[in-house]
Amino acid sequence: MQELQKSLKPYHEGFLSFSRLPEEGCGREEILREMEKLKSVEEARWKEGRVSGAVYHGDSGHVDFLNQVYALNSQSNPLHADVWPSTTKFEAEIVAMTAHMLGADADPGHGVCGTVTSGGTESILVAMKTYRDWARETKGITAPEMVAPATAHAAFDKAAQYFGIKIIRIPVGPDFRADVVAARKAITANTIVLIGSAPPFPHGLVDPIEELSELAREHGLGFHTDGCLGGFLLPWAEKLGYPVPRFDFRLPGVTSISADTHKYGYAAKGTSVVLYRNAELRHFQYYTTTDWPGGLYFSPTLAGSRPGGLSAACWAALVTLGESGYLRAAGAILETAATIKQGLREIPELQLIGDPLFVIAFMSETLDIFQVMEAMTRKGWGLNGLHFPPAVHICVTLRHTQPGLGQRLIADLKEAVAYVKGRPDAPAGVGPVYGMASVVELRGMVSELLRMYMDVLYQV
Predict the structure, then answer these.
(1) Are 223 and 193 in contact (CB under 8 A)?
(2) How far from chain centre, in Å, is Cα 214?
(3) Residues 279 and 370 in one domain
(4) pLDDT in tens, 364-410
(5) Are residues 217 and 309 in the same domain?
(6) Are residues 241 and 125 both part of a single domain?
(7) Residue 62 in domain
(8) Torsions phi, psi for 390 (to 5 deg)
(9) Fewest CB atoms within 10 A around its CB: which of 51, 279, 450, 454?
(10) Could you give the CA distance from residue 98 to residue 320 in angstroms, rounded to a whole number?
(11) 68, part of any domain
């Protein structure tokens, strides 16, 4: 436990720490110095591009600009639309621009619409709540079920727990994409929505959205494309000529999409967009109450008060980059990803999973892949561990497009593989935890370990 605390909190000693309010407030200059110290501990690794995902743009000029925009709007709150109508203007335009990017023009009669949320998880949560309420009112379904591939984001399971929806997990095929036949078999009289991802987080391989959404349309069901990861990159990849299967509103069976502006939209963390094919469906997302002594109360998403500064910064990111900026960024990312994929193919001990565009997963048939990941961690890299099957991935961002970084990753991987081959007893880092989670009887133990991990995070 002490080692865990040390790794999670490198600032525990030598920095200001409070378990209660100080009797006299600290000086502003002292607090700013403390923030600079904390920043210096954490910034170098992601800025050098050694972390998978996490920071998707990170250029100092871009970050400084967004911070200035936030400062100008730091007091705004879209809950009070009468006081800050500018915030609702920003959000309406964010939704409209995202809808246009994701095929809304292909179905102008329905009027694709949506809302801004706090992130991908909330976009998924409110969409599933919407389908639950829609199915209850229009179909009388009181024991709702959703059908989701095994690779669909954990937020769908969270939505199932929060909103009393049974989640039916279907397998992926040998190509690691959702099994359409299994999806068809999983549909029951209580099914309200089918799920597909563009792409899923683990392996970066876009599900067969066209087939899945058409299956949903045949049965009169909702279909949600989770484009949280790829929604702001795949459209530009397609324009650049890369092979991108259709996943958006150009497919008539797609009834909602989530897309994260704070990933490849390059906004500050804390914004996402959820879109619906029509306003009738979106109405089921809203919360309203008319019998509270405090007056009429309504909100479009889970939160009441929200930081309008984040919406302003999101709007600013979209309109300053423009289509040309997103195309340039996508081109640089995909070129770097191609370099990494080619390098991986030249390491015989590692196997690339499929042919993804920008989320690159690899496994090993001869080595403990988590020992390889641990060796990379010691070299300063922060890669993502996967299981079912054991694998590792890197989500390529603009941080990784710095000159020579893709080649550096491959060179370090070659060294890590050689190290593990020569030391079969090398430490595996989190490997044992992933291994336990692969055994049904031990999953409760792993869940408890994760709860302990979160307890440590929030301890002073």
Answers:
(1) yes
(2) 25
(3) no
(4) 999 999 999 999 999 999 999 998 899 999 999 999 999 999 999 99
(5) yes
(6) yes
(7) no
(8) -60, 130
(9) 454
(10) 14
(11) no
